Amino acid sequence: FKWESRKGWEALLEAYFRAFTSSDNVVLYLKTYLYLDPDSKNAEKIKGIVKDFGSTLAGMPMLGTDYFEIVTALKEDLKPTNDGVAGSLTPDGFSRILDVLKANMSTKGDVKAFLEALGKPANDTFVDTAKLPKIIVLTDDIPMAALPSVYASMDAFVLPTRGEGWGLPLMEAMAMGLPTIGTNWGGNTAFMDKSNSLLVHNEGMAVAEGINSVFQNRYQIPQLEKEVIGGDASVKYFPRHEHRPNPANVFPAPPLRASIDRSTGRGICSNRGDTDASRQEGRWATPSVEHLAYHMRFLLANPSAGRSIGEAARRFISKNFSRNQVATVIEHRLHGIL
């Protein structure tokens, strides 16, 4: 993934650092690059960012073994009827537990008292930056022919993005039979659901700062157009793409559209049909760190369930997105047009 906020790297690192310690038998491989950075493949620079981010989590409540047992117990007590594949916890199921968790994990004291009341050990209560789990950063280009081997060497795939047009790496991982974790919002929900993957609860829509920094700041329009759309600098607009209606599970929120205001030279990124000027801004999802951490712990504690999830994912992708199946969809659509 490209190293930018939209890809949810903050949520990924926070969940990983709070879910595991150096004593856990886990490694997170980050295949990434620094987006829009001249030194984009500098692995040491990325490691520095990771280390600095990890230091900000010092003293935060852990989401490790104790937390996993708490959530599992609450899951059984609340008995959500919409359990996911292989006994996993769906976003709807987790949302019923979320308020209980938030109420008891708001401060360090609350967490400690909560664990003691449940008779749980407090040895992994808070993040210790001296005991962070292992991360390996990969920045070199991987030939397309080698990608299957890379996927096959892993036990799971996780990408808690804030918004995707589609999410090809998620689909590739599922096609390779990996249990795959992704956010329950955006284009990836066209092929990810509770029957074939581990979806992360979306805590709500937030202002997409990265998008708005492009479309609302006063960039030089000719330069922006040349770099983004390769257009003639004399043309002061972005092309408008009218999307056909999509199933609600694909785009829970209206699609975004962008344009340049010719009179001011400023950009507007808004929800289509939204006439409230105060809401004319890009928005993206907020993946739940707590739910993401639970999914990670679930796969570590239940390797057989992980294999079942991966098998379900591969079956789904093979059945619905094979070349023959996609060709059939295209053929039907062409017949409808012609």
What does this structure look like?
- The longest helix has 18 residues, at 303-320.
- Strand 9 (256-260) and strand 10 form a beta hairpin.
- The protein is of the alpha/beta class.
- The radius of gyration is 22 Å and the shape is globular.
- Strands 5-6-7 form a three-stranded parallel β-sheet. A two-stranded parallel ribbon has the order 1-3.
- Helix 1 crosses helix 10 (289-301), helix 3 (65-78) packs across helix 4 and helix 10 crosses helix 11.
- It is built from twelve helices and eleven strands.
- The two termini are 38 Å apart.
Element order, helices and strands? EHEEHHHHEHEHEEEHHEEEHHH
N-end to C-end Cα span: 38 Å
Spatial strand sequence of the major β-sheet: 5-6-7
Average predicted confidence as pLDDT: 79
- The strand count comes to 11
The largest pleated sheet is described as: 3 strands, parallel
Low-confidence blocks of residues: 212-280
Task: Give the arrangement of secondary structure elements.
Elements: E1 2-3, H1 9-19, E2 27-31, E3 33-34, H2 43-55, H3 65-78, H4 91-104, H5 108-117, E4 134-138, H6 147-152, E5 157-159, H7 168-175, E6 180-183, E7 198-200, E8 202-207, H8 209-215, H9 221-228, E9 256-260, E10 267-271, E11 283-287, H10 289-301, H11 303-320, H12 323-337
Helix pairs in contact: 1-10, 3-4, 3-10, 10-11
